[in-house]
């Protein structure tokens, strides 16, 4: 034991009134078990957290969101700094910028204070955003949608409008609800195929098959992730594992894996962080020519289009404005080559689907159907496959069959299940409602028992929080969750 030099008064206190505390101090053993940071119990520390992290009361380093100067985008900790209102998008710097609305327009306001283009001197801009001269003559063989012609105003050029009962389903104007004569009856649970527009594995397992479960061998990102099901989705990214995981880590949140962030003024025009529009010190001034023509300069002569294109493709503001940059201009609302869309075939029939000649579509086919490129009509495309299967999906949105009550479909085969909802509940209580253990409890329960237990478990967690105790579970089952508890006890 090392010697402590003290004054006379302190020595008397240590030998008398403070002797117990003094002995405890000399005998203190630091304890950092399960801790990354914070107090070791003896006046020392268990470690320090890296930049961007803070130590919580339990000794764990927690990520601190990095949203300073940002109004949207990734916060560096798996969350968001905010969302942009309609009509604007989030650029790489985390700022909401106005997105010009020029799709399908040749001229007129772009919604961001600019223009979508200018008309020739002999034409004027219509309220719809088209350059128009004299009104076209109906009957000239060309259906000019942008100049006032359609199937109602000029059927000679644009073809007859579709009507219920004409023998084909125009998905742009008809569906199974409005015209069963052309589109057929609407789907119902139990009809043998899964209509994903109105059904899913939760609402109709009979048609759509069972929902994904942790441990079934594939990661369904709609219901699972690396936090809730490591068995299927793999281990979550961690700072220090040597891999910079996109969407979870960046140079701000984990310099160990992703390297240092670039800084404007360091003499290097680097990565997605910088460009002539964000850091002219390193990348030079934006001095480009026309947005619709390739050129050697940075950016183009429209600041809003430059900001929009370069936020998607920094090369356009770091190197040159090439053909790819020009092709990206249209995504930002500026149409470099105004086009006249046409949805009429050479025989005068209206297209149900397919290309409109201007990069757009004349219509879209529903799931399980495809567009026939000769007739431009939707035809059934999928061939159901049920070989060796007695239940589950047929691969085309339909079903190979349904299992009897008390059975579940496993890899296309119906298998019996023995656990009732009460069995699952007792198992979950023994697990303390821990997620991984609870998943194992209802792995071989009946579909009905699973559904009722899921509702009951969510009620208990909402009432007790994630740190569930046996006492709180007992109170919940006799109080806020009593109805669901009684339902569970009577569910096979």
Instruction: Tell me, briefly, the overall form.
Output: flat
The number of helical elements comes to: 16
Helix- and strand-based class?
Answer: alpha+beta
Task: Strand order, main sheet: write it out.
Answer: 1-2
Specify the helix fraction band: 10-25%
Major sheet summary line:
2 strands, antiparallel
Strand content: 5-15%
Order of helices and strands: HHEEEEEEHHHHHHHHHEEEEHHHHH
CA radius of gyration: 33 Å
What does this structure look like?
The chain is α+β, with helices and mostly antiparallel strands and 492 residues long. Among the domains are: 262-332, no CATH class; 362-400, no CATH class; 417-489, no CATH class. The chain is 23% helix and 7% strand. The protein is built from 16 helices and ten strands. The chain has helices at residues 8-15, 19-26, 155-158, 180-183, 205-208, 230-233, 255-258, 280-283, 303-312, 315-318, 323-329, 421-431, 435-441, 447-464, 470-478, 482-489, and strands spanning 53-55, 61-63, 88-90, 96-98, 124-125, 131-132, 369-372, 377-380, 407-410, 413-416. The chain has a two-stranded antiparallel ribbon. β5 (124-125) and β6 (131-132) form a beta hairpin. It is flat and about 115 Å long.
Summarize the structure.
This protein has 492 residues and is α+β, with helices and mostly antiparallel strands. It has helices at 8-15, 19-26, 155-158, 180-183, 205-208, 230-233, 255-258, 280-283, 303-312, 315-318, 323-329, 421-431, 435-441, 447-464, 470-478, 482-489, and strands at residues 53-55, 61-63, 88-90, 96-98, 124-125, 131-132, 369-372, 377-380, 407-410, 413-416.
